[in-house]
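Please, structure for the following, as tokens.
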Amino acid sequence: MVTVRKVKDKLQVYSGDAYKDRCKNIPAGRWNKVARCWEYPETSVIDIITEFRGELKVTKDIDKLYKEQHRKAVLLSEVINGKHLDPHPFLMTHQRKCRKIAELYDRFAFFADTGTGKTLMSLQIMKDKATRFIVVAPKPTIKDAWLGDANAWFPDMRLLPISRNMSKQDYLGIYEKWLGEVPYSITRKPKDKIKEYLAEMADVVVINPESFKIDIDFIESLGIEGMVFDESAMLRNNSSQITKAVRAFSDKLKYMYILSGEPDPNGRLEYFSQMRLIDPAILGTNFSAFRSRYFRPAGFMGYDWEPFDWSKGAMTKRISKRAIVIKKKDCLDLPKEVYQTRTVELSAKALKHYKTMRNQQMVFLQDSAVSAPTKTGVINKLLQITSGFVYDTQNDSKVVPLHNDKLNALQEVLDEIGNSQVIIWGN
């Protein structure tokens, strides 16, 4: 017989050597040398009971946990099929499904196409939870998507952007919007103090991935209980710095939701690190074990990996326990056309060049002195600077490269869109 016990937030499975391989077959298992048993997260209870059905000694608390997990799984299937949806004044059907799913699960993956309203749906979910959240999102989406949708649909929700590009005047403007007239004592405070003061009152803090890594100490001081990570494909590399930082932070949180239109742009190996954030019981906690389970070596010297013929269906079945896929073609009440504006913030260095050209009509770039004697010339040079290059004044055939800010933002959009055909109009 196999015995399973609940110890704090873990399930401990006691079995003989004859069951070793079957225990290893359940994702997220870890051998506890001290207790001499296999340990799993609570969410593995259905896998454990399914694996050892008829050979398992089940206590009342394990049976209760199993029934609760099974109840939620049944409800999830019904919600996806359009049942139990609450009416809403502006959310569309697929968005109401996601809202209902978030009532069932504190951690979930929403893999929805670009233009299906992930931002609006996420704002409603955060409002429902009534606790402090952090949104980690690509820089170009923060102003136009997150702040724009919040101002339009949730004007009472306090979203605070955290960015080194935010000026003191920007934060004073947010203070005035939230609290009215700004006292003189506040205007005398340095920018960081005003930011900290506002952060204590914010419902949601919005930040880009690079700033998240840099400001992690400040973020950890805010008492955040939930995270929404927009475009989770950025976390597809299991060993990247941003993935490790998000994993370490989110493991302490009650709520975790990830959004992406294209979670696996380079192949299904990229699901592992994203689903580990949601529930380690889905694909496990060991990347090598996951890879060996679903993939085989391929290519030159076996450095590439290709899925087994059966693994796509098996992985989809596992992932669907904590993820929903929403395709634009399936959203019957979605508008035929969706227009989005992406504002691209210049890097600090590029912004400095921009201001110098605007104010002095000249800027020194690399070994070139670029000048513009007329106002029209200045405007042309400013347009070039925002585009990432400048033509040398002395030699029109020489192009001085400055940055790739707009190209990087475009690449992020293309990653979100995935394999769909795209027409790019350039000016």
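The CA atoms of residues 137 and 230 lie 5 Å apart. The two ends are 71 Å apart (CA to CA).
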